[in-house]
Amino acid sequence: MTKKKSEYEKMLAAEPYFGLDAELLALSAQGQANMQAYQAIPEEDEAARQVALSQIFGSGGGNVKIIDPFYIDYGCHVHLGNGFINMGCTFLDGNEITIGDMVFVGPHVQFLASGHPVHPDERVSERLIGFFKGENDASDININLSKPIRIGEKCWIGGGAIILGGVTIGEGTTIGAGSVVTKDIPARCLAAGNPARVIRYFDESEGG
Question: Which domains does the chain have, with CATH numbers?
Answer without folding.
Answer: 7-206 (2.160.10.10)
